[in-house]
């Protein structure tokens, strides 16, 4: 059911479905975030596929307001929240890291450009073996995948060059 719901959100976003209540997008994002931390990979994958479409359609226009915040402020809050999940070491920490690392990698270029330093550093930190995360190889793998996707999305010329040494070190 969760896979279908995320798939539906992606298609509604692609179809540019008008949203008449400001809390609708928040509800959609809450569902996606809930699915990003799910232990079933197929559910996480559908959430990862839906997220960039929601950002593209409903959070791209800086003139839009969601409650007291603009779309840009909302984007920045969400990216910070997603980056914070990459340091989670709780009970569900591995699945949180796996989902959010891939979600960051799936974000559109306009979002990644705004907070490139934070996203890259958070993903690099997530690739490191720390006490309590020694057995979380899949989370580190997904951080590498997310980092690779960020690099592919941004491409050269966006300031990515200054992070190459850090990224190379993280991959070794």
Automatic annotation (TrEMBL):
Write out the GO biological process terms: adherens junction assembly; bicellular tight junction assembly; microtubule cytoskeleton organization; post-chaperonin tubulin folding pathway; tubulin complex assembly
In alphabetical order, the GO MF annotations are: beta-tubulin binding; GTPase activator activity
* Coiled coil region boundaries: none
CC terms in the record's Gene Ontology section: lateral plasma membrane
**Known Gene3D superfamilies for this protein?**
Leucine-rich Repeat Variant
Q: What is this protein called?
A: Tubulin-specific chaperone D
Origin species: Pararge aegeria (speckled wood butterfly)
Q: What is the lineage of its organism?
A: Eukaryota, Metazoa, Ecdysozoa, Arthropoda, Hexapoda
């Amino acid at each position: 059911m969760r896979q279908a719901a995320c798939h539906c959100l992606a298609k509604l976003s692609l179809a540019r479905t008008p949203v008449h209540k400001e809390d609708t997008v928040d509800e959609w994002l809450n569902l996606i975030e809930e699915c990003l931390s799910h232990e079933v990979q197929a559910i996480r994958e559908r959430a990862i596929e839906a997220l960039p479409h929601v950002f593209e359609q409903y959070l791209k226009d800086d003139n839009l307001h969601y409650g007291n915040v603009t779309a840009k402020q909302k984007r920045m809050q969400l990216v910070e929240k997603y980056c914070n999940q990459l340091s989670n070491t709780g009970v569900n920490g591995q699945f949180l890291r796996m989902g959010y690392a891939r979600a960051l990698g799936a974000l559109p270029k306009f979002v990644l450009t705004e907070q490139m330093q934070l996203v890259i550093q958070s993903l690099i930190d997530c690739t490191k073996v720390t006490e309590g995360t020694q057995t979380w190889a899949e989370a580190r793998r997904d951080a590498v995948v997310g980092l690779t996707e960020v690099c592919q999305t941004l491409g050269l010329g966006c300031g990515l060059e200054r992070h190459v040494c850090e990224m190379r070190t993280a991959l070794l």
